[in-house]
Amino acid sequence: MGAAKIARDITDRKRNDEHIATLAREAEHRTKNILATVQATVNLSRSDTADGLKRAIEGRIQALAKLHDLFVDSRWTGAELSSIASQELAPYTGEAERRVQIDGPFVWLAPNTAQAIGVTLHELVTNALKYGSLSVPKGRVDVSWMRASDDCVILRWSESGGPVVNKPTHQGFGTSVIQRMIRYQLKGEMDLDWRPEGLACQIIFAP
Q1: Which of 90, 122, 141, 185 lies 20 to 30 Å from 102 when distance is taken between CA atoms?
Q2: What phi, psi does 61 have (nearest 5°)?
Q3: Measured between alpha carbons, how far is 138 from 110 in angstroms, rounded to an integer?
Q4: Does any domain span residue 178?
């Protein structure tokens, strides 16, 4: 009996050691991914002023940090699309006059996809705050999504009630960032429609 107990203890210790080693490898991998993402965020950020650059970097890193909170809750399996959208638009969903409408079915996104969509929504919110519907008290944002027949997700962002919109004469840096993420990281499609009543954006991607 004593020998059997010792054998069990050794087996349990080996299992624990293997589990700890696996967790250490996963932590190392995730840490490298996080640092690489932060480095890319800093390298991709541009502004005409030092303060503007600082705010842009801070905003993007905060968006990533909020996403990682969702990843921790799910044990790093990903995040749900409505949680990502609600998190980014939270400052505007609790007002008496509903300025934000979020609607769509349950869609679970893998970490890399969730990260790209989270940063994309952050850039759209930032643009709406500076130039679009969220820059005025009566402006609205509608965010919705649906599953296509091929199981891809169609995500729509629509602004209304803001200043009259004119198509930019050159591509802004935020637009460049999200287009690169959608087209190259997610292999998806993005269409921007600069309507006079507000920007409309449609994104198609595989979850």
Answers
A1: 185
A2: -70, -40
A3: 35
A4: yes
Domain assignment present for 3: no
Structural domain count, the chain: 1
SS3 track for 131-171: CCHHHCCCCEEEEEEEECCCCCEEEEEEEECCCCCCCCCCC
55 domain residue, yes or no: no
CATH number at residue 200: 3.30.565.10
Strands 79-80 and 108-109: antiparallel
107-166: pLDDT as tens digits:
999 988 998 898 889 889 888 888 899 888 889 999 999 999 888 999 999 999 989 888
Q: What is the mean pLDDT of the chain?
A: 78
User: How far is residue 146 CA from its own chain's centroid?
Assistant: 17
Give 46-55 pLDDT, tens digit per residue: 555 666 556 6
Residue 160 lies in a domain: yes
Question: What gap in Å lies between CA 38 and CA 14, rounded to an integer?
Answer: 36
